[in-house]
């Protein structure tokens, strides 16, 4: 038996027939209809309610309907012996590239400055800037970050990356470790963060690190909100050290109504839409993974709990 749960009942209704078609050998249930919790072997979920897993004694695995699993890893009701599987790309890398590309292109073409000029009724041309004039640092070179880095390179930007482990990537300079991060920051006109939230990355983007960016740089955060100290960001934007920011994720979501980020002229706020799970692709990937498990093959996208992602 597989339990399918997301907080939005309409979404559950949309997913259910797709999963039933893709996995005809399994029985499915939803939380509302759950009669025999002891029969549930797998949960497919995004945002499961507190305590859910503790009520499922036969649980063999949890499939996340997303790439980031920080919320699942923090759960006290989920035994560390139960594997968590996450989505690998599943169409999210291409969306994330578009999201970051939009920000980088706006920065390159001074659109943030022109928006402010428009608000002030100012007609003033700025010198042209080409992609090769803009250095982009990408934090996170995983399924999504590497696609972002490669896509921006193909656009002509000068791209460098940062990851936890050392990476040898053809034609893509990359760094790891604290010293590596400082080097990357010093050479990034745009810093694009697509890191997971882990005990090592929470609070990473603090005032000291943001101050290492060149004057007039841009920050894009589409990883997780708790990576960034929002007050520190506001401080470096107010001082003019940073020119602008494009933020998709926040320490608390939805972003609080009284957050200064909403109205800051240098900030673009989006409601966690940089890369949305695509239903068909998610179903196909999870079904293929469950079939692998049924055949005794190793599953893909296994979360490594000790790393936190
Ligand atoms: P992956 O696990 O494939 O990649 C994670 C990357 O981050 C890896 O390159 C990893 O390094 C690096 N990393 C992890 N910890 C550290 C660290 N301490 N220091 C430096 N680098 C680190 O994840 P995905 O690419 O699939 O997704 C990344 C994140 O994007 C998700 O966890 C989620 O938070 C976010 N996301 C946001 C979405 C949105 O709509 N805003 C949508 C989808 C995802 P290494 O290569 O050495 O393992
Ligand atoms: C994800 C997300 O991690 O949408 O998949 O944030």
- The secondary-structure element order is EHEEEHEHHEHEEHEHEHEEH
State the major sheet: 7 strands, parallel
* Radius of gyration from the alpha-carbon trace, in angstroms: 21 Å
Name the bound molecules: NADPH dihydro-nicotinamide-adenine-dinucleotide phosphate, oxalic acid
Strand content: 15-25%
Structural account:
- The protein is α/β, with parallel strands linked by helices.
- Helices cover 30% and strands 16% of the residues.
- It has 9 helices and 12 strands.
- It has helices at 9-22, 70-73, 92-108, 111-119, 145-155, 177-186, 207-210, 230-238, 279-294, and strands spanning 2-5, 28-30, 42-45, 61-64, 84-85, 135-139, 158-163, 174-176, 190-193, 217-221, 242-247, 267-269.
- A 7-stranded parallel sheet has the order 8-7-6-9-10-11-12. A 5-stranded parallel sheet has the order 2-1-3-4-5, with helices on one face.
- Helix 5 (145-155) links the parallel strand 6 (135-139) and strand 7 (158-163).
- Helix 1 packs across helix 9 (279-294) and helix 3 (92-108) packs across helix 5.
- It is elongated.
- The mean pLDDT is 98.
- Bound molecules: NADPH dihydro-nicotinamide-adenine-dinucleotide phosphate and oxalic acid.
Outline the secondary-structure elements.
Blueprint: E1 2-5, H1 9-22, E2 28-30, E3 42-45, E4 61-64, H2 70-73, E5 84-85, H3 92-108, H4 111-119, E6 135-139, H5 145-155, E7 158-163, E8 174-176, H6 177-186, E9 190-193, H7 207-210, E10 217-221, H8 230-238, E11 242-247, E12 267-269, H9 279-294
Parallel strand pairs: 1-2, 1-3, 3-4, 4-5, 6-7, 6-9, 7-8, 9-10, 10-11, 11-12
The structure holds NADPH dihydro-nicotinamide-adenine-dinucleotide phosphate and oxalic acid.
Oxalic acid binds next to loops.
